[in-house]
């Protein structure tokens, strides 16, 4: 059966509020929700709920009721989604992505870098992380800010995928970075990308599930930990992650849907970290937290 999205067009701020309302409305259900930027200059965004075609009538009424109080003036629109091979599509014609001072591009776009850009070359391949996903771009933006402000001396990139975030840290500062992934294919691809980006030393790669490796004790503790995984494993690993964090250290978490952010923040507050800020990209959030200086 075909899929459909019902959506509301709004400003970015309104779209965030709408997403919060819809997240509450569909809290324990499996509907995908998201916000997408349509026109940056005009501040036009869409907040969407995705569903099967036969669910439309019921969900339309629920969305209408949920938005009645604050957004009844915004029409609910519909789009039937075409059957697309999303994997093939995602590999086609990837354009360079800007996030913070970084420009992440494929080898075909080397010439797109401008003076002052920190360019990272990643070709779409077998590991996640070309910069196009809201979680990767969100991490890059926060990494730029955090590394400049706090000048970390030892970093960990947990769930490194293509290695893009470890490479980003190393491009900003010549500090040691441990980059790990549960998937041996990802650590292999990351090693290739590290070389491709001209980084000869400083990034150690390790295949490991979560914190199950002696490499963490050997290379840690870390004063910057980045983990772009998913909300559930991030919540589970909060106590271990904090054990490997230095006093005053920074943590950047992503892979979290906007609707899941409070649970993740609560888990890390419980483990002793303070929330600094949350940024949004296409329905995904990236969270920056900090430990107290002891
Ligand atoms: C969303 S991708 C992020 C890749 C890259 N860091 C980025 O930001 O684009 C998540 C990565 O985490 C890895 N991963 C998932 N669960 C993990 C775990 N428990 N321990 C280590 N790596 C994990 C996956 O194999 C995948 O490469």
UniProtKB/TrEMBL annotation:
Its main location: cytoplasm. S-adenosyl-L-methionine binds at residues 136, 159, 181, 228. One of its GO terms (molecular function) is methyltransferase activity. It catalyses: L-lysyl-[protein] + 3 S-adenosyl-L-methionine = N(6),N(6),N(6)-trimethyl-L-lysyl-[protein] + 3 S-adenosyl-L-homocysteine + 3 H(+). InterPro entries: Ribosomal_L11_MeTrfase_PrmA, Ribosomal_PrmA_MeTrfase, SAM-dependent_MTases_sf. Its EC number is 2.1.1.-. SUPFAM superfamilies: S-adenosyl-L-methionine-dependent methyltransferases (SSF53335). This is Ribosomal protein L11 methyltransferase.
